[in-house]
Amino acid sequence: MLKKKYRFVIDAITLAVLSACDGSGNTVTAPVMSVLSSSSVYTTPVSSSSSSRSYEATDDLVRSTSSSSLFNAPPISYGLLVDSRDGQVYKTVNIGTQTWMAENLNYKVQNSWCGGGSNYDEGDCSVYGRLYTWATTMGKTEDECGYGNSCDLGLGNVQGVCPDGWHVPTLGEWQDLFVAVDGNTAGQQLKATTLWVGEGDITNDAYGFSAFPAGYKYRDRFSNVGHEADFWSATQISENGAYRIELYYAYDYAKWYNYNKYFGFSVRCLKSYGSSNPSSSSAYSSPSSSSAYTLLSSSASIVYGSLVDTRDGQVYKTVDIGTQTWMAQNLNYVVGDSSYCYDDEPSNCTKYGRLYTYTAAVTACPNSWHLPSKDEWEALFAAVDGMSTAGLNLKAASGWNDDANGTDVYSFSALPAGFMSFDGNFSYVGIEANFWSASQNYSFSAYFIYLYGNDNAVLGDTNKYNGLSVRCVKD
Fold it and tell me: Which residue, 139, 245, 298, 449, could crosslink 435 as a Cys pair with Cβ 3.0–4.6 Å?
């Protein structure tokens, strides 16, 4: 079977041939397909039980209905929250009379760390969100509210580290949530169906809360990723402690304890009704439209949007570059047995999106979006100052090995997802990003885009059975 080094010998030959041809006879128009797009950190992970859940658009939200025989869950109403401080997009969910973030907070401040870490190494913020001390959670310094310091937080909701219009839930509000999800089995109902040790045994994510086992930070060490999810409450017990919520892999119930304030736990924010800033979140009025949520970044030329893929409820960030609207995260929609997680690890799909064969890629994009042609990729390169610096300008500002991060000045945020060769081997995660185009070259190959350690972008040709990332562009 061909190894990685031989692939680029072939690609180099192809590039030489391309330089002598105009390529007009080799381009095929991408068909109109079905909508979607990170870090990321901005993606809601797909439940492993998503095959039993269907989605339908209504006038003012995206609604899922479950056919699972494990529970009688009410329809799940998803909304979107755009954090105006950093442009991150979070999925939200209505449970009982409350509206919760359906993802862990990932807003970077002092005394916060990436969840999912082990020993002395931080984890992956794009999968698990961040861990915060209690004082940081409450929007205070350690001297004001940290261990050994009792602080007066006043009456009413405490926004703390949460976005405008949202607040840190009290222990009582957490308990209201547990009652709304059947009480004694709250742990089972609230835990996500992926990434837990023994996943699926005591999880069903019946209400779309999707609690991930980010573990915790104690002093300088990270522990229990995969085993537990821990969330701060706003309820202080003493100068040394506050209540935290625990969901544990082996239990179907939820627990709460008084814990020392210097621990690092996850944060879920709760909507504050009657807020003076209601525009920071709302139900998604048009799942196929990227214009429902726009936000100017620090660069006035960048406009962010977001959309919900009605097929599985995943939320993607979008970005306008030049005259095009691109998904700013890699596609993560399951296409039969022709899309893959790097190394077959679900957490890699959450972080990097899926890897697709060419045949799967051309059918994967959501309605009103499509797999970009070679010409559309070249239009993107022209809009970001040409191919010679396109790699630098399009690569994410973090996540690349060997100091190969980009500037991400256009917020395309390309991550190094690696690739899967046609013989099933996975290679080069952290080192390169490979994206399909819809344009075929020969019956057995199609054009692709390659970003790596250098500043430039490369347009090449590769076997249709290889597994590459997909970015969709708006029709």
Answer: 449
Q: What is the distance between the alpha carbons of residues 332 and 346, in angstroms, rounded to a whole number?
A: 11
Each residue of 373-425: pLDDT tens digit? 999 999 999 999 888 889 999 999 999 998 899 999 999 999 999 999 988 99
pLDDT at residue 36 greater than cutoff 50: no
Q: How many CB atoms lie within 10 A of CB 290?
A: 25
Output the DSSP codes for 384-408.
TT-HHHHHHHHB-SSS-STT-----
Instruction: For residue 45, give the nearest of 100, 94, 102 by alpha carbon.
Output: 102
Backbone angles phi, psi at 176, to 5 degrees: -60, -40
Name the H helices within 140-240.
142-145, 171-180, 186-190
Tell me how far apart the alpha carbons of residues 178 and 201 are, in angstroms, rounded to a whole number. 20
Place of tokens 């602080």: 151
CA–CA dist 434, 353 (Å, integer):
12
Q: What is the mean pLDDT of the chain?
A: 79
Q: Is the pTM of this model over 0.70?
A: no
3-state secondary structure of 334: coil
- Cα(102)–Cα(45) distance, integer angstroms: 10
Contact 80, 92 (CB under 8 A): yes
Task: List 66's β-bridge partners, or say none.
Answer: 53
Contacts of 368 (CB under 8 A, 6+ apart): 32, 35, 288, 474, 475
CA atoms of 317 and 308, how far apart (whole Å) = 9
C-alpha distances out from residue 255 to 66, 169, 187, 383, Å: 27, 15, 8, 52
The band of 76, judged by pLDDT with boundaries at 50, 70 and 90, is confident
Question: Judging by DSSP bridges, how do beta strands 433-442 and 426-427 pair with one another?
Answer: unpaired
CA distances from 401 to 330, 333, 351 (A): 19, 26, 15
Task: Please tell me the total number of residues recorded for the chain in this structure.
Answer: 475
CA angle in degrees (0–180, nearest 5) for 351-356-358? 150
pLDDT digits (tens, 9 = 90+) for 258-300: 889 999 999 999 999 853 322 233 322 223 333 333 333 333 3
Give the per-residue SS3 of 224-255.
Answer: CCCCEEEEEEEEECCCCEEEEEEEECCCCCEE
- Cβ atoms < 10 Å from Cβ of 336: 9
Distance CA 131, CA 208 (A): 21
